[in-house]
Amino acid sequence: MRLRALRFGLIAVACVACTVGGFAQDRGLDDYKNNLAPYVNSPGHAVDKMLEMADLKTGQTLYDLGCGDGRILIAAAKRFKVNAVGIEISNHLVKRASENVKKAGLQERVKVLHGNFMETDLTGADVVTLYLATAANESLRPNLEKYLRPNARVVSYDYPIPGWKPVETSATDGLHGATHTIYLYEVPNSILRK
Asked: Which pTM does this prediction carry?
């Protein structure tokens, strides 16, 4: 029994190492330290629904925290004619997102910044989009409360913001029949006061 458990453990470690190694073959450890969430693509239909729920207006500014490859930034700038700012801690993903923005011809509307969104001033945001784990959202919540102006909206894919009450939720389909939830929050209405 112990041998089987040890063998299973070694196989699991090897699988994780192969997955991370394959994903990170051209990246260094610096791309992963201080990350609050792993990089996972937001499905296209979820991006569309998030942006619709955000009720974006031409000329507004959207911040995507942990912008990954820039897909939310590009969709927002194209469809809604907004300015978009992405904050990304991974050097590799900053380069990829910047290349995608350039390919889309949106350099005038979209900026991708290398940095830690926990240290980012969000006062210019009309909308903030998130695809972070609940614990990361909880860590981020004080910054959202500090910087966001009244009527700013926060749209979170899959994970709620503890201590906030959504003004709207929407279910979307995921892989293998899974259902995912999109949470829409509005400042200050969503902030629960004790």
From this structure: 0.79
For the domain spanning 44-186, the CATH number is 3.40.50.150
40-44 LR contacts (CB < 8 Å, sep 24+): 40/68, 40/131, 41/68, 41/69, 41/71, 42/68, 42/71, 42/72, 42/131, 42/157, 43/172, 43/174, 44/71
3-state class (DSSP) for residue 87: strand
Per residue of the chain (194 residues), what is the pLDDT tens digit?
444 443 434 333 333 333 333 333 344 444 444 455 555 566 677 899 999 999 999 999 999 999 999 999 999 999 999 999 999 999 999 999 999 999 999 999 999 999 999 999 999 999 999 999 999 999 999 999 999 999 999 999 999 999 999 999 999 887 677 888 999 999 999 998 76
Nearest to 74 by CA among 104, 38, 49, 43: 104
Query: Rounded distance, CA 136 to CA 159, Å?
Result: 9
Which tokens go with 90?
Answer: 């991974």
- How many residues does this entry show for the chain? 194
- DSSP 3-state of 152: coil
What does the domain layout of the chain look like in residue ranges?
A: 2-28, 44-186
